[in-house]
Design goal:
6-stranded antiparallel sheet, globular, 13 helices, Jelly Rolls, 16% strand, 3-stranded antiparallel sheet
Length: 285
């Protein structure tokens, strides 16, 4: 069965996998659980095998899926969500998971994990919940419920990674082990604690460094400057409010500590290409 909305794509059919790989792989986060047999798929320059009881995780900014071959007895369940939605989930997650950056870097190069019976049961339960909700076309809260299920699944994934990833594996995901590491993770920690501070100078002052040096450190460790990190966090939060609440625009601006609604509207237009009302209406269609 293959089911989909603009937010979630769910399939346990080979044809559904083929369609998703060809049309959605580059723009979506993928979680594939192999229930039987195996699939060999080209990924990050080599052919990898996802075998029975393995879960495969492809996150944003990782290589897309390439050509593949499957065994005759291959059975699986696969979930895909848009990278934009995954980043929204990770915005919420970043506040409670201080090591998410290391885990994300590790997953990019280690995408396959063998699951035990309990973890498989958790995965199957989340897939079943998603399937039921996708089939309920009468629900006025379908997107919100799908988001809650997806967040629960994300939390479970992080919980699992805590159990299976040794400290040295997470440390190996860092590019260096010097002062730059401390600065970068201190910066992301400040972002979690003070998401409404939107000036690079403010963060640099807290860390007793120059704004230029902070941006250089962020660029080295993540490929993004400090201002890009701040903008990503801010945009993720404003999208969350516009998608998932009915708060008036001036109330959202107040919640996010913008000077006024006009400045909030200008910021939204600059970073999304749409006014807040236009963005909200488009997502409700």
């Amino acid at each position: 069965m293959t089911l989909s909305t603009e937010s979630v794509f769910l399939t346990d059919e080979v044809e559904g996998f083929r369609f998703a790989r060809e049309t959605r792989s580059e723009t979506s986060t993928t979680v594939l659980l192999c229930l039987n047999g195996h699939i060999d798929v080209y990924y990050r320059g080599e052919m990898i095998r996802i075998a029975k009881n393995d879960v495969f995780i492809r996150i944003p900014q990782a290589t897309q899926l390439g050509p593949y071959e499957i065994s005759d007895d291959f059975r699986f369940m696969m979930l895909q969500i848009p990278n934009e939605l995954f980043e929204e989930l990770m915005y919420n997650q970043m506040r409670v998971e201080p090591r998410w950056w290391q885990k994300q870097q590790y997953i990019k190069s280690h995408p396959i994990y063998p699951l035990n019976e309990v973890s498989i049961e958790f995965c199957e339960t989340y897939f079943h919940l998603l399937r039921l909700q996708l089939q309920d076309h009468q629900s006025d809260y379908r997107r919100q419920i799908l988001m809650l299920i997806a967040r629960g699944a994300t939390m479970e994934m992080l919980n699992y990674l805590d159990k299976v990833l040794p400290e040295e594996a997470l440390a190996a995901a860092n590019l260096t082990t010097g002062a730059g590491d401390y600065t970068f993770y201190a910066f992301t920690g400040l972002l979690r604690q003070h998401p409404h501070e939107r000036e690079v100078q403010w963060y640099a002052k807290q860390l007793n460094i120059t704004p230029k040096y902070l941006s250089e450190i962020c660029k080295i460790h993540s490929g993004k400057s400090a201002s890009e990190w701040i903008a990503d966090i801010t945009v993720s939060e404003l999208k969350h409010y516009l998608r998932n609440t009915t708060l008036p625009i001036h109330e959202i601006a107040k919640e996010m500590e913008f000077p006024n609604a006009s400045f909030f509207c200008q910021y939204t237009k600059k970073h999304t290409g749409m006014t807040p009302n236009h963005f909200r209406k488009q997502r409700q269609q």
